[in-house]
Amino acid sequence: LGATEKFKIGDYVNDLSKNEIGEIHSCEINEADFYVGSYAIGDRTRAFLKVQEACDYKCTFCTIPLARGISRSDTLNNVLKNAKDISDKGIKEIVLTGVNIGDFGKGEFGDKKHEHTFLDLVKALDRVEGIHRLRISSIEPNLLKNETIAFVSKSNSFVPHFHMPLQSGSDEILKQMKRRYLRGLYVDRVKKIKETMPHACIGVDVIVGFPGESNAQFLETYHFLNELDISYLHVFTYSERDNTPAALLADPVPQNIRKKRSKMLRALSIKKRRAFYEKQLGRTRTVLFEGENKGGYIYGFTENYVKVKCPWDPSLINTLHSVKLTEIDIDGLVRFEFVEQGITV
User: Fold this and answer.
1) pLDDT tens digit string along 178-208?
2) Is residue 291 a part of any domain in this protein?
3) Is 83 exposed, middle or buried (0-12, 13-18, 19+ CB in 10 A)?
4) Residue 43's pLDDT is what?
5) What whole-number distance in Å separates Cα of residue 118 and Cα of residue 101?
6) Contact, 293 vs 310, CB < 8 A?
7) How confident is the model at residue 1 (pLDDT cuts 50, 70, 90)?
8) For the stretch 247-280, what's the b/e string if a residue is b when 16 or more beta carbons lie within 10 angstroms of its beta carbon?
9) How many domains does the chain have?
10) Are the beta carbons of 152 and 134 closer than 8 angstroms?
11) Cβ contact 142:180 at 8 Å
12) Mean pLDDT to the nearest integer, 85-97
């Protein structure tokens, strides 16, 4: 079944036993415009609410447009209904997901058949009763508008955590990737977030070893990220994908160089995360505790995505507590004391 037909699997199941020969049901990928809203509950504390599917961008390294079709979104009313359903199940945090979530609704250029924008979605979700936390999973820097940043900074539910793909700190590589921004815009987005939410956590996606990436261009990326006020990196080693323009580019980077660059950026990520955590020490934050016992400890996250730990206590699962962050443990996670109890754990 294709990208549209998979949502109508029930229409095809009854006919399967009538034919011993396999069947393919699929429309042209650029005609796939059907959407069904959904959510998944990862554990007893967090749910992932999908509001958007596919992507209209033509990044030269990416196969998503070939497999998912055009960007399309759920209706605002159905998103709100799903959010309320999640809240009624006792889930404390909802993570908004999508392939290109900032393109929700009317889309980047306001030309899609939809009544609402991403900012409309954010504002409406903020009014849903019973939701303690809302988190934006990942959003393109060119689609994260000043108005959205300003609203999140004053929101009742949206947390100060943004994850923005960068992919490269070299403008030349960004152009080769056909990204819709240059590094200057990325700097502006980071500055705007930090101006309104100094304690915000900012995560970054970056690709190393893109075809033609010289050592100088990689170092440009490294130094750009090192100087930027960000909190952690998700590092991806470039790999060729069939039917993508990037796979046809000249000067592929040798695998051993790709691995070396990836290792350097992952080390930088550890450094960045620790520096961010150190800035949070002594601060009072709210922790949502998760449900898994890992080596005798229970873990949780603050609203600005600091990961904490304390000895296992099942009564803490899916509860929110005000804590004072006190020290970074040997494993890089943060210890704390409960503000309401004054107990260090």
Assistant:
1) 999 999 999 999 999 999 999 999 999 999 9
2) yes
3) buried
4) 77
5) 8
6) no
7) very low
8) eeeeebbeeeebeebbebbeebbeebbeebbeeb
9) 2
10) no
11) yes
12) 96
Domain that holds residue 236: 160-280
Q: State the average pLDDT over residues 93-117.
A: 94
Residues 294 and 234 in one domain: no
For 130-169, give one letter per residue: b (16+ CB within 10 A) or e: ebbbbbbbbbbbbbbbeebbebbeeeebbbbbbbbbbbbb
Q: Compute the residue count for the chain.
A: 345
Task: Give the residue with greater pLDDT, 102 vs 67.
Answer: 102
Residues forming beta bridges with residue 302, ordered by sequence position: 287
Residue 179 lies in a domain: yes
Last residue of a domain, one of 280, 308, 331: 280
Residues 270, 226 share a domain: yes
CA geometry: angle 221, 223, 226, nearest 5 deg: 110
Would you state the pLDDT for residue 42? 75
CATH of the domain at 325: 2.40.50
Domain termination site, one of 250, 280, 310: 280
Residue 129 has pLDDT above 60, yes or no: yes
Residue at 115 is within a domain: no
Task: Supply the pLDDT for residue 27.
Answer: 52
| Mean of pLDDT values over 275-304 | 97
Give the C-alpha separation, 201 to 187, whole Å. 15
DSSP codes joined into one string, 205-271? EEEE--TT--HHHHHHHHHHHHHS---EEEEEE----TT-GGGG-SSPPPHHHHHHHHHHHHHHHHH
Residue 321 within a domain = yes
Same domain membership, residue 334 and residue 245:
no
